[in-house]
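Two entries, shown back to back:
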Amino acid sequence: MSFDPVSVHLGAAFLANMPFMLSLVTDFGIVDPTFDRSGPLEAFSEWNADASSQEVSDGLVIRVASLDDTDSSSELRRP
């Protein structure tokens, strides 16, 4: 399945309407920013323990949860 790219401004109003999860296809692959946890861990320190830092733009570094700590792959039937 393939789709044409759609340009989207990811501002506060757009994100406020995404209460659970958003799936984006990016130059980095599929990125799923979440607004609530999706996995067995509760505390930030637990999520942060196996997370990695990724620079997504000059000077913009984000923390990315380990797939092993999420339920996303199995729920979305991704490899």
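entry 2 starts here
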Amino acid sequence: MAGQIRAGREHRHTGRVDETIWDVARASRRWLDAANGSGDTELTCRILKLAEEAGEAAAAWIGVLGQNPRKGVTHTREDVAAELADVVFTALVAIESLGLDARTVVSGCAAKVQSRLG
């Protein structure tokens, strides 16, 4: 799995925790399928859920900046990171919902980006 950047340092995670990410994404897709079905309308909702989650990340960043003078500073960078993680996880579930293996798709994306880095 690609490294995670934090405070200028690269962290590599390996082992069972990484496997849990993919397992939980698949289990979430199965749970949603059982609760809501798996037709195109449901798939559309899962894809649109990404926009909702991205909006929450944007709102958290606005809260970090204190951009709203009525509210002031309302969030931390950790809050933003948690919201971005929700975006990532929602995307993994959406990929699985397309009938594709999220790990394979994300690995392909990482390889594409890596090839651009030189």
